[in-house]
Write a structure and sequence with these properties.
The chain is an alpha+beta fold. 25% of the residues lie in helices and 33% in strands. Strand 25 and strand 26 form a beta hairpin.
Length: 670
């Protein structure tokens, strides 16, 4: 076994690899960009080397800088994690040429499976069933359109070198094909440096099921069962679970054997994932092979009890697989939810900012347990526009799926973030969705259940207003009502000469001002949230972050409630078992000068990014819904469309310009 490992990645996967390496007694080296100088993965390793600027192409995609860092630190092996250079055959080859072990498959296997087109051709020869489509080299747009017309709509355009949902478009009609193709190719070129695509028939109600395979240099190859990754949005996985609900032993063996055959066909070594798309009748088709560790690998670790990163390191060091196929067993059920800094109510746009507060349930970190958290950021870290906005992966294990789902709901209720928008509430609704609960899974579930998964915001109830008000009073030094003092002048319970205390708090809730009238008469407290005064008591308990987060238990009108309230930047973020709510403290003086400052017909940038395409100019007449320009952020394209019919008065930016969140992009008049 080597003694020094360089981890050529960042975020939670770098921390994950470092955790196993530390347990095995292996010294670790981190690499970091300008934006990551104080990142968690840097602190997790024994040594760290700066490799360049914040943009991935200036740092984490610089094979030369990473190899030099490995040489300078005496690293005998490089673990690429996932993303970045993990599936780059040139990098794997360069590491081998430098005498450094690449913790992954040989370059030849990456090359064979790295191109979706080449991989499908290889699988076709091996007799693995394929979805009808075109996987050839001719990339002429009109030729591709002809192929799509022949396959029949809807079709799926996929970047040949793609992954992670980038460079993929579903096209419903022939007339929409060329525009979708151009967008897909731009995104593919930006993300992978390769704009080639393939086209496939888009299956109705498909499930996405993948098989974890592992091979060593001694001729052994096994599969560690399957994961169901059907719950997706924008072709990106949201929930992963293992084993796949409804999987029969016969079908599991068939898919496992097919995955092992695929791995053997390319002389595979290390961890890999063979992805299949399955129809409701049980037929399955090869989709692609990811020649690396997957984001969702913890659910496989949870049900098998094996550390897949340890397996990777042992195989890379020339050791045989730690287990044979007949030794592997499934224990219970595991579910993983990806906690992202994103805003589901705004099309899941990434949310940029500082993580002012992060609360997590009691858990194990990077190791199996009932609740496990694999995280790459800490409270106080900044979510930047340069990298994937994942905060953490929340993984739970149960004796069966129902218990795992219940445990996930509990864990999500205790996952609290302030400073950025998150998808936690959305994930909680997803866990409670009737289709998900019944395991009626397919890749269109989120879009089909959109009305219930993304409901209109509801006004805060009296308990939420009471919790927010109690937290503010506690922060301002007002103790619990039951607290007593020997000298009334020392009391901090609202005591006033004459025994009366009255205060009005105003909270802005989704644009509406809500009043909370607090009163004390003798020893009795009341709170009026609009339905008349009700008896009010509260008590704060110890918090890990005093003066920021307050754990509270209140009684309002005889009904008891509990929650955590985070007071940050004039807002009260209220977290309860029923969900979360953000209230803004209304200050009449601060709002007295409010004006209609925004341009009435202006369109603003929903997030920081770069303008990559503009389709209108001043003077053009536009219709509601017409695309105006395309922004790129975090390697994903976001189209800005006209909100109503009108005439373009001015376009404020040009292609290539970087814009800040909130920047006015286009002015539209009548």
């Amino acid at each position: 076994m080597f003694d020094t490992l360089l981890i050529a990645n960042r975020g939670e996967i770098a921390c994950r690899v470092a955790a196993t390496a530390r347990r095995m007694g292996i010294r670790t080296v981190a690499v970091y960009s300008d934006a990551d100088a104080n990142a968690r993965h840097v602190a997790a390793c024994d040594r760290a080397v700066h490799i360049g600027g914040a943009e991935p192409r200036a740092s984490y995609l610089r094979a030369d800088a990473i190899l030099q860092a490995a040489r300078d630190t005496g690293a005998q092996a490089i673990h690429p994690g996932y993303g970045f250079l993990s599936e780059n055959e040139d990098f794997a080859q360069a590491a081998a040429a430098a005498g450094i072990a690449f913790v992954g498959p040989p370059a030849s296997a990456i090359a064979a499976m790295g191109s979706k087109s080449a991989a499908k051709a290889l699988m076709e020869k091996a007799g693995v069933p394929l979805v009808p489509g075109y996987h050839g080299e001719n990339q002429d747009p009109q030729f591709l359109k002809t192929q799509a017309d022949a396959i029949g709509y809807p079709v799926l355009i996929k970047a040949s070198a793609g992954g992670g949902g980038k460079g993929m478009r579903v096209v419903e009609s022939s007339g929409a094909f060329l525009d979708a193709l151009a967008s897909c190719q731009r995104e593919a070129a930006s993300s992978f440096g390769d704009d080639r695509v393939l086209i496939e028939r888009y299956l109705q109600k498909p499930r996405h099921i993948e098989i974890q395979v592992f091979a060593d240099t001694h001729g052994n190859c096994v599969y560690l069962f399957e994961r169901d990754c059907s719950v997706q949005r924008r072709h990106q996985k949201v929930i992963e679970e293992a084993p796949a609900p409804g999987m029969t032993e016969e079908r599991r063996r068939a898919m496992g054997d097919a995955a092992v055959a695929a791995a053997r066909a390319v002389g595979y070594v290390g961890a890999g994932t063979v992805e299949f798309i399955a129809e409701p009748d049980g037929r399955f088709y090869f989709m692609e092979m990811n020649t690396r560790l997957q984001v969702e690998h913890p659910v496989t670790e949870m049900i098998t009890g094996h550390d897949l990163v340890e397996w990777q390191l042992r195989v890379a060091a020339g050791q045989p697989l730690p287990a044979r196929q007949e030794d592997l067993r499934i224990d219970g059920h595991a579910i993983e939810a990806r906690i992202y800094a994103e805003n589901p109510e705004k099309g899941f746009l990434p949310s940029i900012g500082t993580l002012a507060y992060l609360g997590l349930p009691a858990h194990t970190a990077f190791a199996n347990g009932d609740i496990r958290v694999d995280g790459g950021v800490r409270m106080g870290d900044t979510i930047t526009p340069y990298y994937d906005p994942m905060i953490a992966k929340l993984i739970v294990h149960g004796a069966d799926r129902d218990q795992a789902r219940a445990r996930m709901l509990q864990a999500l209720a205790q996952t609290q973030a302030v400073g950025v928008q998150t998808n936690v509430a959305f994930l909680s609704r997803l866990m409670q969705d009737s289709a998900f609960a019944a395991a009626d899974l397919d890749t269109g579930l989120i879009e089909r259940q959109r009305a219930t998964l993304l409901p209109e915001p509801q006004p805060a109830g009296p308990a939420v207003l009471a919790l927010a008000s109690a937290a503010l009073l506690v922060r301002q030094g007002l103790g619990a009502p039951a607290r007593t003092a020997t000298d009334p002048w020392d009391a901090r319970d609202g005591w006033r000469l004459g025994g009366r205390y009255h205060r009005e708090l105003q909270w802005v809730d989704n644009g509406e001002t809500r009043k909370a009238l607090i009163a004390r008469d003798g020893a009795a407290w009341t709170l009026d949230c609009g339905d008349g005064p009700q008896a009010f008591q509260w008590r704060a308990h110890a918090s890990a972050n005093p003066n920021l987060a307050y754990g509270l238990r209140i009684t309002l009108g005889g009904h008891e409630s509990a929650g955590t309230v985070v007071l940050h930047a004039d807002r009260a973020h209220v977290f309860t078992d029923a969900g979360s709510h953000a209230l803004e403290r209304y200050d009449p003086l601060a709002h007295s000068q409010d004006t209609q400052g925004e341009h009435g017909g202006g369109l603003t940038a929903p997030m920081p990014g770069k303008i990559i395409s503009i389709s209108v100019q001043a003077g053009d007449t536009v219709e509601k819904g017409q695309p105006l320009l395309v922004m790129e952020a975090m390697k994903m394209e976001h189209t800005i469309s006209a909100p109503a019919n009108g005439k373009v008065a001015e376009v404020f930016y040009a292609v290539g310009d970087q814009v800040a969140e909130g920047a006015e992009l286009v002015a539209i008049g009548e």
